[in-house]
Amino acid sequence: MGRIPAGKAGVGQLGTAREQIAVAEYSFAALGGAVGSIALRGDTIPSGAIIVDTLLIIDTIPTSGGAATIGITTQSAADTAAVAAFDASPWSTATPKRGAITRATTPVRTTAEHTITAVIAAAALTAGRFRVLVTYIDPTA
After folding, report:
1. In the chain, domain spans
2. How far apart are CA 128 and CA 72, in angstroms?
3. Dihedral of the alpha carbons of 57, 36, 41, 18, in degrees to the nearest 10
4. Running along the chain, 141 residues long, what does each successive block of 10 average in pLDDT?
5. 19-137: what CATH class?
6. Within 10 A of 29 (CB to CB), how many other CB atoms are there?
């Protein structure tokens, strides 16, 4: 291997891929809380992106008149946040939390452009607001 020339970090010499963060928001006031898949407002994840980290920021704890469950999907079912009861972790406290994909887990590569989606099951939500932050590398950028 040759030496890296002065002023060159050696990063990005084959391309300009860098980490980006997609932010999507669920707000009961704006999107409702019906059972089913709800496309969150905000950014999408491009095709071919490599998801390396996810965060959930619970701004207003979700509520339900029943036994609602919530899961978050980017590429495949509940890959960003596993399905859990609305009154259990990660939804039960208004603090930031790690999603299912972290820097310590296997990254996920998208096969198409994806909207970050909340999947509500068992009963409707009656309140709540949260954000999903997805850190990814776009190798085509």
Report:
1. 19-137
2. 14
3. 70
4. 48 68 97 97 95 96 96 87 92 93 91 95 97 92 67
5. mainly beta
6. 10
